[in-house]
C-alpha cells in the first residue's frame, strides 16, 4: 500500500492511473479537490478496488494520522501543491499555506507515525517529495543545465514556496532520519493538465479560434517532460533511490515557448485542418520576473537508476494534442466560469 497526496491533479492522477495499471499494490489517494484537481481525472480508476480516494487536506493532521494508522503505507508520495506561477504572482499566500505550512504539517505527521514502526518498517519506509526545477532559478543561454548540487535561487512566489518545502524535506531526513527522497522535474505536459498552463491553454484557445498568448518575445526556454515519463521516473526513484538524495528529472527537450506553440499549431493543422492556427499567435505583456531558461541535467537518473525519457517532444506533443481532441467532454467540465474569468484577467493586455 502507498499513500499518494494530490492524486486528483494533473501529475498525481497520471501517476495513480499508471501505478494501478503497472503495479499490484493498492493506492490511498488523498486530495483536497481544489480548482485544478477533480475526480474526472480519475475516471479510469472507477470501480478499481485497489484505489481508495479520500477527500482532504495534507495539513489536516488528524486525517493524515488516521490514514497512516489504518492503511500503514510503505511509502508516501507527496504530489500535493499549488503549482501555477501566474497565480502565485497574483496571490502568493495560498502557495505558502499549501507548499510550505501544509507540507511541513504532513512531514511532522508522517514522522510521528514513522517513529512508532518497528525497525524493519522504519528502514524500508519512504517519503517521496515531488518538486520542480524552478527552485534553481534562471539560466543564461549558454549556462550548463541544473544539477542536483545547483544552488537554489527561486525567483517567483511559487518557486520560493517549493524551495522552502524542499529544504524542510531535507531537514527532516538530516535531523530525524526520516527516509526522504526529493525529485526536481522540468515542465510537465500531457493528458489531464488543467488548461491554465501553456500547452493545454494553447490547444483550447486554438480550437476556439482565440488568441494564443505568448509572454514577451516568446524566447523563454523550458525543458519539456511528458507526464508518463515523469511518472515512470518517480516509480524508479521510489524503488531504487537512496534515502536523503535528490534526483533531477528532465525530458531532454529544451524549447522556446513560441516554438512549443508553433509545434501545437502544426499538429492541429494535421488533425483539425481548415484554419491557420499560426495566425492566432499573440504576444502579450511579459510575466513579472519571468525566468529566461530552465534546463535539467538528468545524468544521475540515467547512471544510478537507468531511467531515460521514452518520449521525444515531437511524439509527446502529438499524443497530448490527440488526448485533448479525444476528450473534449473533460475540457468542458473543467472550464468553468471561474476559469474563463482567470484567463480573461491574466491575458487581457496585448503587447
Describe this structure in words.
The structure is a single chain. With 351 residues, the protein is of the alpha/beta class. The model has no long low-confidence stretch (mean pLDDT 95).
Keywords:
351 residues; alpha/beta; Rossmann fold; three-stranded mixed β-sheet; 13 helices; 12 strands
Structural class: alpha/beta
Alpha plus pi helix count: 13
- The CATH class name of the domain at 2-189 and 226-253 and 290-311 reads Alpha Beta
* Relevant CATH superfamily of the domain at 2-189 and 226-253 and 290-311: NAD(P)-binding Rossmann-like Domain
The SSE order reads EHEEHEHHHEHEEHEEHEEHEHHHH
Secondary structure: number of strands:
12
Radius of gyration: 20 Å
Which sequence of strands runs across the widest sheet? 3-2-1-4-5-6-10
Name the shape in a single word.
globular
Mind telling me which CATH architecture of the domain at 2-189 and 226-253 and 290-311 this is?
Answer: 3-Layer(aba) Sandwich
Largest sheet: 7 strands, parallel
Gap between N and C termini: 51 Å
pLDDT averaged over residues: 95
Short description:
The protein has 13 helices and twelve strands. It has helices at residues 10-22, 61-71, 85-90, 93-114, 119-124, 157-176, 198-207, 227-240, 257-271, 299-305, 313-326, 328-334, 337-346, and strands spanning 2-5, 27-31, 51-55, 75-78, 126-132, 180-185, 187-189, 212-215, 221-226, 246-249, 254-256, 281-284. The model has no long low-confidence stretch (mean pLDDT 95).
Amino acid at each position: 500500500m502507498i499513500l499518494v497526496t494530490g492524486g486528483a491533479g494533473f501529475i498525481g492522477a497520471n501517476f495513480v492511473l499508471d501505478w494501478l495499471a503497472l503495479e499490484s499494490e493498492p493506492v490511498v489517494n488523498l486530495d483536497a479537490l481544489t480548482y485544478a484537481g477533480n475526480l474526472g481525472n480519475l475516471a479510469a480508476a472507477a470501480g478499481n478496488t485497489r484505489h481508495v480516494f479520500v477527500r482532504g487536506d495534507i495539513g489536516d493532521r488528524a486525517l493524515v494520522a488516521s490514514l497512516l494508522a489504518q492503511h500503514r503505507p510503505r511509502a508516501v508520495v507527496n504530489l500535493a501543491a499549488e503549482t501555477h506561477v501566474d497565480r502565485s504572482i497574483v496571490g502568493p499566500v495560498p502557495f505558502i499555506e499549501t507548499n510550505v505550512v501544509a507540507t511541513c504539517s504532513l512531514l511532522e505527521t508522517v514522522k510521528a507515525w514513522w517513529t512508532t514502526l518497528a525497525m524493519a518498517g522504519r528502514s524500508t519506509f519512504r517519503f517521496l517529495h515531488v518538486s520542480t526545477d524552478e527552485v534553481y532559478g534562471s539560466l543564461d543561454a549558454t549556462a550548463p543545465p541544473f544539477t542536483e548540487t545547483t544552488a537554489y535561487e527561486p525567483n517567483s512566489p511559487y518557486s520560493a514556496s517549493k524551495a522552502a518545502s524542499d529544504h524542510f524535506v531535507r531537514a527532516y531526513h538530516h535531523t530525524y532520519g526520516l527516509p526522504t527522497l526529493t525529485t526536481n522535474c522540468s515542465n510537465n505536459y500531457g493528458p489531464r493538465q488543467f488548461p491554465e498552463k501553456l500547452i493545454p491553454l494553447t490547444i483550447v484557445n486554438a480550437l476556439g479560434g482565440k488568441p494564443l498568448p505568448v509572454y514577451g518575445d516568446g524566447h523563454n526556454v523550458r525543458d519539456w517532460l511528458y507526464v508518463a515519463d515523469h511518472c515512470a521516473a518517480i516509480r524508479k526513484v521510489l524503488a531504487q533511490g537512496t534515502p536523503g538524495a535528490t534526483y533531477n528529472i528532465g525530458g531532454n527537450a529544451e524549447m522556446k515557448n513560441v516554438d512549443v506553440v508553433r509545434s501545437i499549431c502544426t499538429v492541429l493543422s494535421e488533425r483539425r485542418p481548415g484554419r491557420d492556427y499560426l495566425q492566432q499567435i499573440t504576444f502579450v505583456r511579459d510575466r513579472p520576473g519571468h525566468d529566461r531558461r530552465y534546463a535539467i541535467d538528468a545524468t544521475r537518473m540515467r547512471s544510478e537508476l537507468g531511467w531515460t525519457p521514452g518520449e521525444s517532444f515531437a511524439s509527446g506533443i502529438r499524443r497530448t494534442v490527440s488526448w485533448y481532441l479525444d476528450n473534449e467532454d473533460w475540457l468542458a467540465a473543467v472550464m468553468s466560469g471561474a476559469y474563463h474569468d482567470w484567463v480573461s484577467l491574466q491575458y487581457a493586455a496585448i503587447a
